[in-house]
Amino acid sequence: MKNRNETLFFKQVKTAFEHKIRTMQSNLNTNNLLKIDLHCHDLNSDEPSINLGRLLGARETWVETDRLIATQKKNGATAHTITNHNNARSCFELQDKGVDILAGAEFDCMMDDYNIGLHVLTFGFEPSQVTTLAKLGKQSVYRFLDYAKEHNIPTVLAHPLYVYNKTKKELPIEAWEKMTLMFERFEVLNGQRDYWQNKMVMDWLQTMTPEKIHSISKQHNLSPTRFCKWPYKKFFCGGSDDHMGFLAGCTGTLVQVPDLQNKLTYKSKSQLVLEALRLGQIVAPYGNCGDPRKMGTAFISYFCQLVKHIDDPGLIRLLLHSGSSSEKLQAFIITNGLLEIRRHKYTTAFLEAFHDSMQGEKISWMKTLKISKTYRPLVKEINQIADIITREKPEHI
Predict the structure, then answer these.
(1) Which pLDDT score, from 0 to 100, does residue 306 have?
(2) pTM for the model
């Protein structure tokens, strides 16, 4: 009975949320729209937000840049960016090669008055500004946003309900209220978050009338125009938050560009998206968001990548690295466990084959010979996964 009620709840939340998205998308002129995934990662996302990741020396993903862009195109994106943590190396490297891509990054920012960490998607900055943005973000999100507004750099608060709470205390409602004054663009559709999380963010923002924002501003003595050009209007964005390499582009943001076809004759798509972000011409998010199956797949995919790529950080490095004793002990146990798995060649071969299947690659008969007989009955199922990913739209998997 409990499972039936939970299923009914999930369906009701999903239906209500998707209805809101369709309403936003209704009556759009598709000839004037660009589709861009404003939140995705590749192998240059090598500066994890959590201390445990830094202790392990782990990347957030090992997906290659070219594969990520190709996946975005395959899944329907018509403009492109990559938002790695605290750096934009992939974007700038592609720009140097002549690829049309919007510079982007996901910066770690401290809301220092509450000792919590936020993730802020940031776009259109220059290479010389990355160090300053990263430094300001670690010091204070307020200084970060002051700098961003001064230099006309658009920002988006990523997955607003997911913050890093260093105090482990319950976050007061006042912190969420201040966020509504600090940002005008919010990620209300994150491909890796549950429907209820995304819907809650959207419902919360839709209650923010000018009167309520003015009241919050007065309560916190924080001007609504300090960080926002349009303080009484909230813009809704979407992104896949993909770390696996096959969901990028499935979820994203529709950008309205009046007279698009004519403007494309003298401006690039990345320029038009940046202008739209700056001018508030975002129309609506698009795509699907997470469910337990997708989150489970993401975890398995990342585990396979860890087994294949993780290096031994060394006991001396673990001892000297910043972090608590419990985090260092966890890192030591996890590293030794992963390296022990890697010693077993048959298990490693199976995990690599399984991860490749999620990229649409079947197990060849030669690879089958490298897999233990214990795992060979699963080869057929793994190849079926590869078939589905190649044939179907990933959001339906």
Answers:
(1) 72
(2) 0.83
